[in-house]
């Protein structure tokens, strides 16, 4: 199982509803639905380097599995949490700093796609990426 590579968003499922539940305003939700997000993942042992680029921002994120860290989503929402690997799945569990609610994100390779799933306050969404 390797997440290494360049991944470009291909399609989304329930992503706008998820962003609404997260408190993202309508204008930002509409823009994010067409952000052309690209993720570059490089893993070395339990260390990950993630580079995200979209029409709105570029983010470089380095973390170690199981080690808590802080970062901000594109809309400015601040989170703290960590990633773990469970079988073939990367699972991130993060608490929002403003309300302490939990955001869970998973990444799994299905065929030739990276499926990134989100769960927040009972709303689930997916973004599916193709190698690019």
TrEMBL record:
The reply to whether Transport figures as a keyword in the UniProt entry is: yes
Under the heading Gene3D superfamilies, the entry gives: 2.40.128.20
- This protein's UniProt keywords: Transport
Q: Where is the Cytosolic fatty-acid binding proteins domain?
A: 5-22
Q: What does the record give under GO molecular function?
A: lipid binding
Q: Which family does it belong to?
A: Belongs to the calycin superfamily. Fatty-acid binding protein (FABP) family.
Q: What is this protein called?
A: Fatty acid-binding protein, intestinal-like
Q: Which organism is it from?
A: Clupea harengus
């Amino acid at each position: 199982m390797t997440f290494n590579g360049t991944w470009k968003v291909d399609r989304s499922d329930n992503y706008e509803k998820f962003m609404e539940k997260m408190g993202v305003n309508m204008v930002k939700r509409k823009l994010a639905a067409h952000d052309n997000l690209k993720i570059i993942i490089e893993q070395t042992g339990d260390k990950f380097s993630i580079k995200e680029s979209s029409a709105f921002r570029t983010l470089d994120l380095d973390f170690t599995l199981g080690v808590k860290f802080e970062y901000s989503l594109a809309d400015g929402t601040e989170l703290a949490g960590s990633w773990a690997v469970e079988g073939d799945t990367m699972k991130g569990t993060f608490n929002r700093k403003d309300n302490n609610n939990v955001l869970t994100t998973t990444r799994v390779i299905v065929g030739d796609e990276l499926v990134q799933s989100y769960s927040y306050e009972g709303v689930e969404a997916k973004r599916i990426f193709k190698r690019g």
